[in-house]
Amino acid sequence: MRLPQETIRTKRDGGRLSDEEIAEFITGLTEGAVTEGQAAAFAMAVFFRGLSVPERVALTRAMMRSGDVLAWDLPGPVLDKHSTGGVGDTVSLPLAPMVAACGGYVPMISGRGLGHTGGTLDKLASIPGYEVAPEPDLFRRVVCEVGCAIIGQTERMAPADKRLYAIRDVTGTVESLDLITASILSKKLAAGLGGLVMDVKQGSGAFMQELPDARALGESIVSVAVGAGLPTTALITDMDAPLASAAGNAVEVAYALDYLTGARREPHFHAVTLALGAEMLVLGGLSASRGEASATLEEALVSGRAAETFARMVAALGGPSDLIERHETHLPVAPVRREVRAEGTVASVATREIGLAVIGLGGGRTRPQDGIDPAVGFTDLARPGQASGLIGIVHAADAASAERAEAALRAAYRMGEALPERPAIIERVG
Q1: For residue 77, which phi and psi values (nearest 5 degrees)?
Q2: Distance from C-alpha of 75 to C-alpha of 360, rounded to nearest angstrom
């Protein structure tokens, strides 16, 4: 076996790694022969030197093969969606049951928060009793019987990615196009999918703040996925403002429930959710066109079938059976709420700063081992062009935290003349 430091040195110096060298390094990472420091050095070398497309494919496959790879025998297509992460991006929670209600099967493997972005897994963990890491047999049963299950990586699925993911989160290597591509696709290939739709965020709250970077990531994911045999398309979507008006964990679950039941459906969030769902239905052969797919998804929402599917998933994975009807009694609530107001019209939002403010409240991590407070965050966040005076509500554990969060929220908002609102869907890749 080649020494890990030699592999690091090769990439540090701009050399090209063979499939065997990458596979050996990832095997070492999985088995503990590669230390956390060496993994961090490798991630930093890749961040600065990059990987060729063949190296990306090799890294993706090596991480996929580091654990179990699922196979499904179901009467419908096995589909999934993945987002590169943003602030207020809780689309996965309503989207999985919507697609399941339309005939798809969605075994969604999600992650925890990464950098300034919230993690789907942390949001679901705020639901009392919800098992985010079920036994494989339970996971399979829920997907088969309910149509969807949103869980975290099990110890046996892409364990190398799980370890590297946590290291990237705290070493400033989150934004690497190569590592993002391999991380996402290793999990998706291990989940045994028949089709994948990527949501590549672009804007002030995204890892890819510039459109060319977002386009490059979308093209990278599509090319590597298709090259590995997984039909994939990608949408570049707007993240110049929080996607939902809530940012946090329990507050985003409550938002998703309001969306599913029709209590609140904000236009930007709804547009992104429908567009991603339509791509999934077309990719799986469940709809002949995106227009037809959007109508099918709307019907699943209006009829209540999507909400019912979400409720069944939560109950099957150990959560309360009446979460939809009584979420205010089940979800944790922060003891301090504070309205934040500003005069004038919202011109722009420093969205990344809002994500960092959620971490400052205790709703995210600065180290992999950190715990989080599921109750804290923001609600009623204003979008550019809004002139209500209320720019958000702070949900905090104590007055001092609320004070700091209010200052951070004020600093994130610039008041003045708003530019025309960006479209929710910027462009399609693949």
Answers
A1: -70, 145
A2: 46
Higher pLDDT, 164 or 119: 164
CA nearest neighbour of 429 among 290, 234, 275: 234
On whether the CB atoms of residues 148 and 306 are closer than 8 A, the answer is: no
Q: Are 275 and 425 in contact (CB under 8 A)?
A: yes
Predicted TM-score (pTM) of this structure: 0.88
Q: Is the pLDDT of residue 273 over 70?
A: yes
Positive or negative: CA dihedral 300, 424, 283, 191: negative
Catalytic residue among 187, 312, 352, 365: 187
Residue holding tokens 């990719």? 283
pLDDT single digits (tens) 158-195:
899 989 988 997 898 987 889 989 988 998 999 999 99
> Of these residues, 82, 123, 327, 352, which one is catalytic?
82
Please confirm, yes or no, whether 168 is among the known catalytic residues. Answer: yes
278-303 per-position pLDDT tens digit? 999 999 999 999 999 999 999 999 99
> Measured in whole angstroms, how far is the alpha carbon of residue 70 from the centre of its chain?
21
The whole-angstrom separation of Cα 294 and Cα 276 is 9
| Residue in 168, 268, 312, 365 annotated catalytic | 168
What length does the chain have?
Answer: 430
Catalytic residue, from 61, 188, 215, 312: name it: 188
Question: Please, are residues 143 and 112 in contact by the beta-carbon 8 Å criterion?
Answer: no
Long-range contacts of 373-376 (CB under 8 A, 24+ apart): 373/334, 373/397, 374/122, 374/125, 374/126, 374/248, 374/249, 374/250, 374/331, 374/332, 375/126, 375/248, 375/249, 375/250, 375/251, 375/331, 375/332, 375/333, 375/334, 376/248, 376/249, 376/334, 376/401
Active site residue 120: yes
> Among 30, 60, 83, 173, which one carries the catalytic annotation?
83
Beta carbons within 8 Å of 113's beta carbon, 6+ residues apart = 119, 122, 169, 359, 364, 365, 372
Catalytic residue among 92, 126, 183, 379: 183
Based on the residue annotation, tell me whether 80 is a catalytic residue of this protein.
Answer: yes
Task: Say which amino acid occupies 294.
Answer: S
Note whether 374 and 126 are within 8 A (CB): yes
154 in catalytic set: no
- Residue 11 annotated among the catalytic residues of the structure: no
Distance CA 153, CA 159 (A): 8
